[in-house]
Amino acid sequence: MPAWLWLPAGTAVVVLVLPLVVLLARTPWPDAITLLSSSTVRDAFALSLWTATTATAVSALLGVPLAWWLGTGTSRGQGLVRLLVTIPLVLPPVVGGAALLFTYGRGAPVGSLVWNLAGVTVPFTTAAVVIAQVFVAMPFLVVSLEGAFRARGVLLEEAALTLGGDPWTVFRRVTLPGLRPALLGGIALCWARAVGEFGATITFAGSIRSVTQTLPVAIDELLGHDLDAAMVASSLMIGLAVVVLV
Amino acid sequence: MPAWLWLPAGTAVVVLVLPLVVLLARTPWPDAITLLSSSTVRDAFALSLWTATTATAVSALLGVPLAWWLGTGTSRGQGLVRLLVTIPLVLPPVVGGAALLFTYGRGAPVGSLVWNLAGVTVPFTTAAVVIAQVFVAMPFLVVSLEGAFRARGVLLEEAALTLGGDPWTVFRRVTLPGLRPALLGGIALCWARAVGEFGATITFAGSIRSVTQTLPVAIDELLGHDLDAAMVASSLMIGLAVVVLV
Amino acid sequence: MPRSLRLDVDVEVGPGERLALVGSNGAGKTSVLRLLAGLDRAAPGSSVTSGRTVLVGDGVHVRADERRLPMTFAEPRLFPTMTVLDNLVFGAARSGRSQAATTRLRALAALDTLGLGHLVGRRAGELSSGQSAVLAVLRTVLAPAVGVLLDEPFSSLDTEVAADARSAVHGWLDQLPVPLVLATHSVLDVMALATHVAVLDDGVLVQHGTVDEVARRPTSRFAASFVGLDLFAGHSHGTEVLVDGTFPGPASARSDRAVAATRPPAGPWTVRLSSSTPADGPVWVAVAPRATTLHASRPADGPRNIWETTVAAVEQLGAAVRVTCAAPLPLRVDVAAATAIRLGARPGATVWGQIDPSSLEVYPA
Amino acid sequence: MPRSLRLDVDVEVGPGERLALVGSNGAGKTSVLRLLAGLDRAAPGSSVTSGRTVLVGDGVHVRADERRLPMTFAEPRLFPTMTVLDNLVFGAARSGRSQAATTRLRALAALDTLGLGHLVGRRAGELSSGQSAVLAVLRTVLAPAVGVLLDEPFSSLDTEVAADARSAVHGWLDQLPVPLVLATHSVLDVMALATHVAVLDDGVLVQHGTVDEVARRPTSRFAASFVGLDLFAGHSHGTEVLVDGTFPGPASARSDRAVAATRPPAGPWTVRLSSSTPADGPVWVAVAPRATTLHASRPADGPRNIWETTVAAVEQLGAAVRVTCAAPLPLRVDVAAATAIRLGARPGATVWGQIDPSSLEVYPA
């Protein structure tokens, strides 16, 4: 690499790394315990953990069969479905949130159906947080698992069938164990995306303490009046990101 | 695939696709032209286009050399740098915005340096929008290009050298043309991420009309008082997402 | 690779009989096995039978997992997340406890015989390719079966590893109480594992017999090239055989096609044998590569069975060089590379060929 | 693959001379070429010279792009985004306009001769592998050079495509005004492209001579196996040669090692020649695989040069089968597969060997 290219390459590293270093350096670590147990951060953290986990579970339940079909089936229309379900990957979360609002809002088609049937409104509830997280995070799980399904093919399944294994046994004992690494990777990615979700959440679920105020939403609010708490919460999320990456 | 797995697979498709379909269906297309030319949407759209394009250009200038080093070099410390520059990929954008604020804000280390040297503040300016977009979008470019550099190796470069090509000729005539597809893909991805950026922008640059109010930020605001304009703007962004995907 | 191939194969394989399916790439070997195993479906209207069971045809379809025709593939396809033992007894799981226990004991015994007893609890993903190939066959042989299917089980292995695998598998097959069908490209597989050979060409059965019959008297171009012989059509009369310079049969073996492309048109040529042929009339003449000797100049031995020719092509076979002659006969002669260098046997060079008539096989067509 | 290998090679290659570097995998062929080309650096203290130029050594380092030693690799490495013509003239770009124009004309003429004139404006990424391999050599030959380096240029090609490529390249090399060094695994490359051979073993030059000299009288185990001969150490006395059953030289060729593993200890054995050897004393005995004939039972010809042995291993070479004998001599005999089947030549089987003494090469060690 010619020497003068070091300048832009180095600048790139500084641009990306410096803010994180500064944030970690300025965080008031001695007060971290106190700040973390302040009710805003604590509530938001708890809400984030359990909504992200729920959203990931839902994504896995719905997404694994979809990835299976996309990765091994040969039906027509698969290409279109693949395109449609990956749109949320590149869609700005705010737009996703808006779409959810226009769909599940009280005056909206699905929203009014739910209101008539069950008497509940979806937006600005904890359920809305989970729905928003599923919407933005499930495509990550589907896309990474689909690749794994495709790469595996059906070689092992064919062998298992000729040996006399019935289809359910084959799925349980051959297909699923083989997917474990990809499944775990996809789940980690999905969870990380869900826990960091902000745009769709604030649009579709708002920022109601203990109900819809997840950690990213809380950080946005804390930046207005409690910088120290915002710093501690942000550092916490950097830690989560590194854990997911490694 | 056992038949009963169609239920979750189908549900997954509905969850991901329905909101988009409803949004597009409910958008008041006849009024679209009028709404798009309303000053809020028009200003936000223009601002989004040029900030995202600027951010992508900056990312390419800084990111290509970095990707080259990461993809072909064999220095120690490369693994650490790769980890550090990919953190923004999984970091919630709000946290990124917070980190930028704590770094470039008036009271912050780099911010006060800039204030003393140039007499300007960074946050809540158009420059802040671009910085936020570079921070969240450049890692996409770096990661996808790094893979391309790695996959290519240095085979062609070795051949070109023995034929008598000097290093700069080899980079210009052999390396760069070979990277075109990956570069275009990485730029598209980077631009899409930049144009959809919301969390870091609103935290670090706020929502000032014509200065920092990009399209996603405007949609968030319009949801409060002009649903029709929000719908048209959202549909526009879905269109952009599909164009990037295809 | 979805490909449409019309298959016409009707072979009976008795218990303890081991049939090798041979044929060039795309001749239909794997297709036959996959149809038998139930992994592919035959076109409507056709029928696939195994024993007395109609597997596909007239609307009957037996699912792959109910056919009891376990199959080994070109890749071992062991289940990498299971232990070696769980792999080996996978097929017996459906047959009840006592069957599973028996299979377990047989598996352990077989592993011990192979000297692989220490691998019993190892995950199958950790095995070497040679071990995997052998254990894949063992898993197939241990499954409850009315017949066993092997599809080029050693084709992915190195020469020496394949030799070890072959000798390990050899013993089990002698005790196999059911028919075995083996698709292979390797004549060593046929020598070690088969009792009979069926030659397929473009989906059609063209020769079927014991290994010895097919090796001695191949009747198709592929079969001849499989056992390493050149085959010519001829006409015998007393001790003279008029040999036609053309190959008989359809052109399918890949290397033959290449030779045909570089070969000039060849005229008929007369071989004088030392004794009479069994019967006058049309015959096949099979020539081994060692029957012909090449010389750089005309040898002194006399005019019989000697001719001048040019080198049409040279090809490397390990450290030997296969020289293909041009007119009058497109014979292929294997010589040491050192000999080829001494002869200057480059394409286009002139050489003298001399054939040993006693090593020709002449038999009625 | 960063690997540490001590190289000790000192060969002179004159203008118009074409040296083939041969040796087993890892013997250092590619390392020598890459050091010469300047793509790898030699360890401090060592020196690499080319002609009178010290390329590396004593602190001098000439950059790869300034050495004028263009190289072709095992993969064609054409620049896929450039046209064929731009690829071919890439090397001349630095040498000024008139040189570039000349090269352009030469490139066009060469393309026409190859019948590839229509490809001149095509992107190199669209070529077939055979075309790419030929054009990669052409690109190297057209670049300004004080020497040309080819590293197994045809090793990735199919047999027939490689044959075409070889004959296309053959012509250019005869007019090459500079030395050529060619690393290869293929004896056909040596036959078609080289005038001299250098045999490397573990980084060390063990034999150097014309192609004919090395093919006739190999003095190392690898060289013998490269030209398809078995080599034994012996002691000659009059018409008798006492042959030791061991291979001479270091064990490096991969297939030899495998044979060694399955070979029982072999005793000395006496060959009676038809005429006296040139000199009494220690000799090499080179045996071609066709010198030995195998029989299923004892042949009637008499007791001389006939022995009973067992089959140690069989190996497939195309459609031929290579049978390795056990004691007394680990000879390798190539027979048609049909013959191997007739002999029942499985590992462990008993066969009779008969050697033709007139086809042995005996020369002083």
Automatic annotation (TrEMBL), chains C, D:
Listed SMART domains: AAA
InterPro entries: AAA+_ATPase, ABC_transporter-like_ATP-bd, ABC_transporter-like_CS, ABC_transpr_MalK/UgpC-like, Mo/tungstate-bd_C_term_dom, P-loop_NTPase, Transp-assoc_OB_typ1
Name this protein carries in UniProt: ABC transporter ATP-binding protein
UniProt entry tagged with the keyword Transmembrane helix: no
Record keywords: ATP-binding, Nucleotide-binding, Transport
Source species of the chain: Sanguibacter inulinus
Domain of life: Bacteria
Domain ABC transporter as annotated: residue spans: 5-227
Span of the signal peptide: none
GO molecular function, one term: ATP binding
Gene Ontology cellular component terms for the protein in this record: ATP-binding cassette (ABC) transporter complex, substrate-binding subunit-containing
Lineage: Bacteria, Bacillati, Actinomycetota, Actinomycetes, Micrococcales
Xref: PROSITE patterns: ABC_TRANSPORTER_1, ABC_TRANSPORTER_2
